[in-house]
Amino acid sequence: AMVLPFNIEICAIGIRLRDCGSSGNTTVDLHLIDAAGTDQGSLLNNKIIIAHNETNEKGFYTNFIDSTTNDVDQAASQLPTITPSSNRNVDAGKSLRLDVDGNATDARDLIVTLFYRPR
Predict the structure, then answer these.
(1) 6, 11, 34, 75: least CB-packed within 10 angstroms?
(2) Which residues lie below 8 Å from residue 24, measured CB to CB, with a gap of 6+?
(3) Of 84, 100, 76, nearest to 9 (Cα)?
(4) CA dist 61 to 35, 68, 84, Å?
(5) Reduced to 3 states, what is the DSSP secondary structure of residue 88?
(6) Contact (CB, 8 A) for 110 and 56
(7) With a threshold of 0.85, does the pTM exceed it?
(8) What is the distance between the alpha carbons of residues 51 and 23, in angstroms, rounded to a whole number?
(9) Under a CB-based contact definition with an 8 Å cutoff, are residues 95 and 5 in contact?
(10) DSSP code, position 85
(11) Nearest to 105 by CA among 39, 12, 20
(12) DSSP structure string for 47-78
């Protein structure tokens, strides 16, 4: 988990797999943890899903500020959404935890990058 030392706004999320796998999907979730350490649930309305048949090493992203994406190509995949936009604001003292809920067979080298700015 990433502990936040100041108030932030989540601006974008980037995802990349060196090898997307041979079957199944890789599924990733982002949870909010309050200052007392209690899981407040997922921040994502749609979890990150990368299907095994996506292009290896392709970088996917969702930019919440300007509503741009480098979108997924497969029907089983999806980029994350966070609504309402106020849910992208996280206060100091809270934490963000990344959960890998599922991993495609033979998938390798997952990178999830969270872009944020102080608010």
Answers:
(1) 75
(2) 52, 102, 103, 104, 105
(3) 84
(4) 28, 8, 19
(5) helix
(6) no
(7) yes
(8) 8
(9) no
(10) G
(11) 20
(12) -EEEETTSPTT-EEEEETTTTEEE---STT-B
